[in-house]
Amino acid sequence: MQKIIIDQEFKDLLPPLDSETFALLEENILEHGCRDSLVLWQGILIDGHNRYAICTKHKIPFSTTTKDFATREDVLIWIISTQVARRNLTPLQLSHYRGLHYQADKRIIANESGKNQHSKMAAEAKNLAKLQVSEVSGHNDHQAPDASTANRLAEQYHVSPKTVRRDAKVAATIDALGELSPNAKKKILSGEVAIDKKELEALATLPNKELIKLAKAIDKGSYDKSTFSHTAPANEGLPSFDPKGTQKASALLKTATNDFQRELQLLAINSDSADRNVALKAALKAHLTKLEGIYKRL
To answer: Which pTM value belongs to this model?
Structure first.
């Protein structure tokens, strides 16, 4: 049987089938065989994960077809578009997909312009820091790339550009929680935990420690909206300054950087090696949120 690579990021994009639907699919494949080809990109499975699991379990032959994409972002967008067209998704699942599409599209635009080539993390940091640039700039005849991306995706998904940008924040929150607890992310997207888009958007400003507590609460089924909904926005308490006040802006950036460095030192001392990467990602997300708050005030 052909060896196929499973990419966890791609797999996690697919809403899991409920047990009844999976059983029906398994019964159909056992009776008729796997009639639809699995779709691969560079040997990585990008469509047909459930069929592949069933065929592997029962040693049933299957065929494959290969698609060519220039980047991982192009693959992500193709998977998202396929799932949106194929499945009956909940409003929150749709919001998550739109937000991921927006983020991936912005990374493609940045890379095509010759920016953010150093690493995927650097690209993500740049994109998240500029998440609200179109809201700050307003509408004009020479729209920033973020604005044009939001407008184009808004037309594609039949929503407003503002909704697309908000969806990006919702997706970032869900994925940050998923880094801490995959089960918490699953509960959110399946609707098992009662948390809506507006709450998720607000929770994007949670400090790293509170985000960890939130992930644990959702995982354990003890999430209480009132416990986390009062969290202050990321830029609350920042002193106001003139857009040209570069000295004050520099001071804010220095403070944020020092705070982040202290957080890294604490992680190095207190975190177990097995949890260090997860904690580091959560700390970085929190730092980027602070930078975004400073960026919006410039």
So the answer is: 0.64
